[in-house]
Specification:
Layout lengths: L1 H19 L1 E5 L2 E4 H30 L6 H26 L8 H14 L1 H16 L7 E4 L2 E8 L3 E6 L4 E5 L1 H5 L3 E2 L7 E9 L5 H14 L10 E7 L4 E9 L5 H18 L56 H6 L9 H10 E6 L4 E3 L7 E7 L2 E5 L4 E6 L4 E2 L1 H6 L6 E4 L3 E7 H10 L1 H20 L12 H12 L2
Helix pairs in contact: 2-3, 7-8, 7-10, 13-14
Length: about 475
Amino acid sequence: MNWLLDGIQTTLAELLRLFAAPLFEVGNNRYSLSLIVTLMVVSVAVFWVSRAVSNLINRRLLVRLGFDRGSRAVVTTFVRYLLTAIGFVIVLQTAGVNLSSLTLFAGVLGIGLGFGLQNLASNFVSGLTLLVEQPIRVGDFIEIDNLLGTVESISIRSTTVRTLDGVFVIVPNIRFVENNIINWSYRDPRCRLHVPVGVAYGSDTLIVTEALLAAARKDPKVLTDPSPRVWFKRFGDSALDFELLVWINQPTEIEPIKSSLYFTIDRELRQRNIEVPFPQQDLNIRNLEQLAHLFQRDGAVDGNGKHAEKDSISSRKPTPKAPNNLTLRDMLRRISYFEQCTDEELLQLIEYGYRQLFPADQIVCEEGTPGESFYIILNGSVEIFSKRAEQYIATLNEGEFFGEMSLLMGIPRSASVRTLDDTVLFVIERNDLQTLLQDHRGLADQIAHQLMERQQTLRQMGILSEFSEETPFDKVRKRLQTLFGI
């Protein structure tokens, strides 16, 4: 048994001597296997500690300070690399490595790496550029070379992008420096989408415009400010080419929003009997007289001995018809201050607002709520009343308007509005009212007169008692000029 213990001790002694034996010498320092293993373990510990400290700073400090995701990623990356570099320097100094003696070796090695690893060096410098300048940051939604996705991480060599399909793509940093990048999240996340739509020749362009704008305003993810717009792009080969322009603030939802818009556009066009044509081409036949004998038959004989009608050589598709009910253009022309408008002016007017159907006995505006819309009655009638004062105020019919007092005076709704029967209203949002009044000065004067009279009525009823001083027409007109510059 003693011989076994002696053998183990001898083996351990030989191993210790082997680990302690110098393998090579750099300068005045000798390096053994045990020292090399110790350096490797300490280096791994330095890397782990730097990573843990940077993550701790990210979670405990940067989150509490309110840094966004991209800024936190940049600070964390710099802290990790800085701690790692300092740790390695300390380890080498502790091991007795004279860093000044490695200067020449590092220079020669750097030249060799520069020629042999140019691509890696380019990505390294590009990574530093991205971290310092921050043209893209973690969490940004970007597009580069038909690659659409969210930036998940930025390292020294590459950037990880997660596509809309959930696929992680590793992109070399040099591509972000040399190529054009679309950063949908840079500064302002709002962006404008172009939705192309083609309709059949012969379609009413005003009805098409109304249909596209109605589809845009029904989508809750489409912004009302800036307002949707419709462009007539060109006379295409098979269709009239339009383009619907809408603003969104969720760039990551571009494709779902487009899909939703196309579904709604298809429904709106069908409701108005507007056809989306198939691609078609005109066929020109030469020497038709030589083929005339093929078409000289008067028709086939049916079972009763009568000749059927002669088949036509070509057929035409019926021109889309307008719906049986009144179009928005017709309803606007029934309003006194729009009846002389040309089709071009009505086209602009349709872009300012939209029509909305309210069933009977429905509240349109609630007393005390902020006013964000102006209403013109296209069809039907409404009743204005005050719940607070328990008083009936007035009944408005076709061609009259309401909602101007809250918008122009900057006060909450002074009364409630309820429909008396099925009513169609032309709704104009606050941001579009300025353009409307600039183009229709007569309407602005009429609104000013009406506002003065309604304020006087409400003061007499005690509903606007806080405005004891009368507001003459000039003062209201000045208010319009201050708000809208008209």
